[in-house]
């Protein structure tokens, strides 16, 4: 099944590396690849440049998430869970980076061209808050109350 895909403007920092792509027609995320070799000492956090500057379309954000194999294969994780790339992060020096934590006792190297994360365009809505004195509904018991 082929669906029409939204056109998104993107600039590669190094045009010898491929554009991000969805690996299958059913893939939600598109792979982001490491632009240069990066060495991450044990227990440290580093930024990995992923070779793209993206003009995130209005009404969306670019969410950067770990590939599911990253912890098992490399011993790395995104320490804050996900990265959020705003619509106005699009200048000539605004290359997307993935923040990673090496949770192993050894130094880890991510090599140029290695698939390190995935990007997902997510629809968003900005809001205007209306402060109220009370809220509707019944309390559920606080944090963790459903399980």
Summarize the structure.
This protein has one helix and eleven strands, in the order ββββββαβββββ. It is mostly beta strands and 147 residues long. The relative contact order is 0.26.
List its traits.
globular, 147 residues, four-stranded antiparallel β-sheet, Deoxyuridine 5'-Triphosphate Nucleotidohydrolase, Chain A, 3% helix, mainly beta, three-stranded antiparallel β-sheet
Descriptive overview:
- The protein is mainly beta and 147 residues long.
- It has a domain at 29-123: Distorted Sandwich (Deoxyuridine 5'-Triphosphate Nucleotidohydrolase, Chain A).
- Helices cover 3% and strands 33% of the residues.
- The chain has one helix and eleven strands; from the N terminus they run E-E-E-E-E-E-H-E-E-E-E-E.
- It has one helix at residues 70-74; strands at 10-12, 30-33, 38-40, 45-49, 52-54, 60-66, 76-77, 82-85, 97-102, 108-110, 115-123.
- The strands form four sheets. The protein has a four-stranded antiparallel beta sheet with strand order 2-11-6-8, with no helix packed on it.
- The radius of gyration is 19 Å and the shape is globular.
- The model has no long low-confidence stretch (mean pLDDT 93).
Question: What is the secondary structure topology, with strand pairs?
Answer:
Blueprint: E1 10-12, E2 30-33, E3 38-40, E4 45-49, E5 52-54, E6 60-66, H1 70-74, E7 76-77, E8 82-85, E9 97-102, E10 108-110, E11 115-123
Antiparallel strand pairs: 1-5, 2-11, 3-10, 4-9, 6-8, 6-11, 7-9
